Inverse folding.
């Protein structure tokens, strides 16, 4: 399949949301550690089955070390420590060495990972994409990477995501440097001409600096124990101080211009910045007031806050500000979402520059014409009107519809005039207001253009879960209809012959250069009734692939397949079609089917056995096994559940259970298979216990081609 050329509006919105949240965290002065960890988690959420990492160059050693990788265990941090940039230093080492993005699809074979091959195998890092982090002179100072547990190549969205995240890291690091400089400046202020007053939790003065003494003419013993209002000039109204304390209580900070009185009775006007200091229990410990000219700093803070809470194109409030103000109280509010119908066509017809001008003009109309408390730009083509007073949502929507029916939006460029229509979603609620309005917009879109839908409180109980199920079901239908279902083969190692002589067929969906794991879609396939169709396709495609070789192989079948009673005839027909020897075929069934299955299920399994097929019990030991039924069915293989194998080298309980299961299999003349063999230490124990076969990434990872 060809690489996706365009990035969708929704994907752009995902990147925009990350940028807005990080800006918000910077504005709220979150720690660099927390900001970078949050950035990594966001990136991981946009690439399932992956981990994100940030590595930085040490200025002295010129080696790379992990700065942030919240999903990587400490042993992984240690393994990556002191990585030398170079042509064989993995994706990150090459990204810094070449100062160019590196997209490695197969770390197990790519020459760029030669020096880190063991790391890739041990941690199952199948692919790794890395983007250089650059300083202001465009020199590499580190890397932002997404490593996947699957072999995959990035599409345009993933590349844009990596680029954006690397740029964000650069900004965060600059901000950290600025914060360190600010701390240095604060220390300088302590010894400069700025006055400082510290009070206790009861707002009684406990310390002043030398500059304060010089500015106001008071010695410390004259001010000790007094309230700072002792310095008040009384020219400010009571409301001024009331608002000051309201801000301190709510935001733990206040700054502004204050006129006070000195000891000699003269007035002094200064910028005063007051902060609340909390103890480790979150209780007020001190107040810190700095009497200085902080005009430039205040302007910078306001500018940063503005960027965090406003859309840069239309200057309307953004989604972050919406969430902030809605969370401040639980009052009933009304919200109308307006999703522009077919805005992508406007961009196509007129170009993005004209589209941006139209959005600016549209935002002014929405802000001025409809008496909303606030206007927000939620997404690229979606605005929101928030009302904090009682309104009739239907009447308000009809008012908006009528306005745009009678008026076009025009701009002073080539006399362009455009008539807009919207899909409207509205809701009144005290909580989850945006989610409910978004659900209403979705319903409105299904009705056609220029339609509206008003959310009713009792109509959606678990919208997110239902939406996820619907999307996954659509994916399954699309995969079946467009032949996206593909068997991947994982080798099974014969511990006696020391060779891989059989394979298990595992289902995957391949779509848009992405390999989708069955963990994503099998549960939805079962609930939606598509599981048996997937089994049919897997049997057909696996038999077709195995026609070209002599390997033994196994296929998973489910209780749904047995319930439909089609397997015996279907497998017979495929054996004849592809001329497959029945002795090569093993059917893997879950333990529960064999131990407590219906009589009809057991009859079908017996028929399949009589044809010469073998039976294997998958995930053996996961449930309460009926050992007698297993023997009666003449089971050929038991596959010991992965949860016992993966930690058998460090968990005594897992070792003893596995030992008992292996003993049972041997005494019952049933071959045993250990699943999830992932390193040499585990394999040595498996061999020691006399288990016949080993399956896992230590020997073979699932792939389209059998090796």
């Amino acid at each position: 399949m060809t690489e996706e050329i365009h990035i969708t509006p929704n994907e752009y919105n995902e990147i925009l949301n990350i940028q807005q949240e990080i800006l918000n965290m910077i504005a709220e002065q979150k720690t660099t550690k927390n900001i970078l960890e949050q950035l990594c988690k966001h990136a991981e959420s946009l690439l399932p089955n992956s981990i994100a990492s940030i590595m930085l160059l040490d200025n002295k050693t010129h080696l790379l070390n992990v700065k942030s990788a919240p999903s990587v265990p400490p042993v992984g941090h240690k393994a990556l420590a002191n990585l030398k940039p170079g042509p064989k230093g993995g994706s990150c080492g090459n990204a810094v060495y070449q100062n160019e993005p590196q997209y490695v699809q197969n770390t197990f074979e790519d020459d760029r990972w030669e020096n880190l091959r063991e790391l890739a195998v041990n941690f199952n890092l199948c692919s790794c994409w890395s983007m250089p982090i650059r300083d202001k002179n465009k020199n590499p100072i580190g890397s932002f990477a997404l490593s996947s547990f699957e072999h995959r190549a990035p599409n345009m969205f993933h590349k844009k995501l990596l680029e954006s995240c690397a740029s964000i890291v650069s900004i965060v690091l600059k901000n950290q440097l600025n914060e360190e400089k600010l701390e240095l400046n604060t220390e300088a202020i302590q010894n400069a001409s700025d006055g400082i007053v510290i009070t206790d939790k009861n707002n009684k003065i406990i310390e002043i600096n030398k500059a304060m003494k010089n500015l106001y003419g008071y010695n410390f013993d004259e001010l000790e124990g007094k309230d700072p209002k002792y310095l008040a000039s009384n020219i400010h109204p009571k409301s001024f101080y009331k608002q000051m304390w309201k801000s301190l209580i709510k935001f733990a900070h206040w700054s502004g211009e204050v006129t006070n009185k000195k000891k000699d009775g003269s007035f002094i006007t200064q910028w005063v910045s007051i902060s609340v200091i909390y103890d480790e229990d979150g209780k007020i410990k001190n107040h810190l007031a700095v009497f200085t000219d902080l005009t430039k700093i205040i302007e910078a803070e306001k500018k940063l806050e503005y960027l965090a809470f406003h859309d840069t194109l239309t200057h309307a409030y953004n989604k972050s500000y919406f969430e902030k103000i809605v969370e401040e109280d639980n009052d009933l509010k009304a919200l109308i979402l307006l999703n522009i119908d077919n805005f992508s066509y406007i961009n196509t017809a007129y170009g993005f520059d004209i589209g941006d001008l139209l959005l600016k003009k549209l935002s002014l109309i929405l802000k001025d014409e409809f008496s909303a408390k606030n206007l927000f730009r939620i997404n690229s083509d979606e605005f929101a009107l928030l009302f904090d007073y009682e309104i009739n949502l239907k009447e308000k929507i009809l008012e908006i519809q009528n306005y745009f029916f009678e008026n076009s939006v025009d701009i002073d460029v080539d006399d362009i005039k455009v008539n807009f229509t919207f899909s409207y979603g509205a809701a009144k609620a005290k909580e989850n207001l945006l989610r409910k309005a978004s659900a209403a917009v979705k319903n409105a879109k299904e009705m056609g253009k220029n339609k509206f839908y008003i959310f009713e409180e009792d109509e959606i109980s678990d919208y997110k879960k239902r939406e996820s199920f619907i999307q996954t079901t659509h994916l399954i239908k699309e995969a079946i209809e467009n032949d996206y279902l593909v068997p991947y083969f994982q080798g099974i190692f014969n511990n006696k012959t020391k060779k891989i002589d059989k394979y298990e067929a595992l289902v995957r969906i391949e779509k848009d250069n992405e390999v989708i794991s069955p963990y994503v879609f099998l549960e939805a396939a079962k609930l939606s009734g598509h599981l048996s169709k997937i089994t049919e396709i897997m049997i057909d495609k696996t038999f077709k692939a195995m026609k070209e070789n002599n390997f033994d192989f196994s296929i998973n079948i489910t209780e749904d397949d047995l319930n439909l009673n089609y397997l015996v005839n279907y497998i017979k027909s495929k054996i004849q079609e592809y001329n497959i020897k029945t002795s090569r075929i093993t059917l893997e069934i879950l333990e529960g089917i064999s131990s407590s299955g219906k009589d009809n299920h057991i009859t079908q399994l017996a028929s399949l056995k009589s044809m010469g097929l073998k039976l294997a019990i998958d995930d053996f030991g996961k449930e309460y096994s009926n050992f007698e039924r297993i023997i009666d069915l003449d089971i050929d293989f038991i596959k010991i559940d992965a949860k016992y194998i993966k930690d058998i080298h460090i968990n005594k309980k897992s070792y003893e259970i596995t030992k008992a299961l292996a003993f049972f299999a041997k005494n019952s003349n049933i071959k045993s298979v250990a699943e999830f063999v992932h390193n040499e230490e585990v394999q040595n124990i498996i061999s020691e216990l006399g288990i016949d076969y080993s399956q896992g990434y230590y020997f073979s990872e699932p792939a389209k081609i059998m090796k």
Summary: The CA atoms of residues 271 and 293 lie 5 Å apart. The chain has four domains: 9-187, 192-300, 310-460, 468-695.
